[in-house]
Write the structure tokens for this entry.
Amino acid sequence: MTAIDVHHEVTGPEGAPAVLLSNSLGATLEMWDPQVAALAERYRVVRYDTRGHGRSPSPQGDSTVDDLADDVLALLDRLRITRAHVVGLSIGGMTGLRLAARDPERVDRLVVLCSSAHPGNPDAWRDRAATARTDGTAALADAVVGRWFTPGFAADHPDLVDRMRQGIADCDDEGYASCCAAVGALDLRDQLGTITAPTLVVSGAEDPALPPEHQEAIAAGIRGAALLTVSPAAHIANVEQAQHVTDALLAHLGGTR
């Protein structure tokens, strides 16, 4: 499949080291709002909408993780960025893992949040894709956003949760389904040992979508990887534990732990 010209935003000083932020399935680049200001003080921050999300075009048919990685490389090439720190959550983390394994010369440091090298349950992902195509992503929105935040955080931030729920409902049906196929078919377990980028893996302790054992497996498979668990936090840990995650990103990208 041909790389897609994804929608993106760039913040921070030109010429500074680049940090690429890759969003979760069903979210847009706006999910990184809590981190951008702090990162942009010292980095050139590149956010983008994954294919089929936000303002990025949708593919026709199923995508693979290589397609998602190709989109990133095409974006970096357009911006004349030869090497970047890569930070991804959920499907964004899967994209980051594949990039670091396949194109190590393009990845400086890697951060993988609330993600997995092998999500499993391919039938469940096929069912989710089928629902998106037949009933639309709005039919999935309540169940998906229910896994994104702990009940206490959701109760305290109803406007934010409603906005994220609407974002899922607004996601292109075919684009969402196409990315579901990439997740359902993913198995990067045998590639983890080839990753040389210094890696930080972040877990949400209460994440029901991709529980901490998925991140523990990633950290165990990458030589020298650091593992951080934040709590309380479900799937969108960078929002629920914004300051904790921002501090961890700055420390790791700056070369400390």
Residues 8-253 form a domain with the Rossmann fold fold (CATH 3.40.50.1820). The mean pLDDT is 97. The first helix runs from residue 33 to 40. The CA atoms of residues 38 and 232 lie 22 Å apart.
